[in-house]
Amino acid sequence: MVKKTLLVLLFLVSCTGSETVIEETKSLNSEEVLNVIFESYKNFSDNPEKAVDVIWGFAHEDNKEITGPKERFAQMLVSEPYDSIVDLKEYSYEVTYENETNVHYEVKVLAKTNNYFVITWVFEKTDCPELKQQCWLTIAVTAPEYFQSGI
Length: 151
Hints:
The protein is α+β, with helices and mostly antiparallel strands. It has a single domain, classed as Nuclear Transport Factor 2, Chain: A. Helix content is 40%, strand content 28%. The chain has helices at 2-15, 18-25, 30-42, 48-57, 61-67, 70-77, and strands at 90-98, 102-110, 116-128, 133-141, 145-147. Strands 1, 2, 3, 4 and 5 form a five-stranded antiparallel sheet that branches. A hairpin with a 4-residue loop joins β3 (116-128) and β4 (133-141). α1 packs antiparallel against α2. The longest helix is centred in the N-terminal third of the chain and has 14 residues, at 2-15. It is globular, with a radius of gyration of 14 Å. The protein starts with a helix and ends with a strand.
């Protein structure tokens, strides 16, 4: 069911304005949000503006304040070390910490350069007033770190 939902969401992102879709998808669980974000990284060069919109759209307001404005955030995504995950080939992940309001994922990435990287991605469940409900938003991301084994 999750894969079917994700495919529908990815189709929606590719066929409609990403801002609207992000608002509609903020009710996803943290794993579904992580997959939407990493599929945007995977297909980044197909439509960089849309990929940035999706990744930015799932950032917590505190995170946006640190990394923004959006134009600066977009430049950060294509600069070292974060550029190593743009157009990634594959990824896998596991939960390393979880409670009712926070989830930490360890994400392993096979980059387009055939190098492997690991990233810690942290979500917080927070109020999303525009949805009148809570949603999962990115509050922290570590810089990709090189490692030698596979995903």
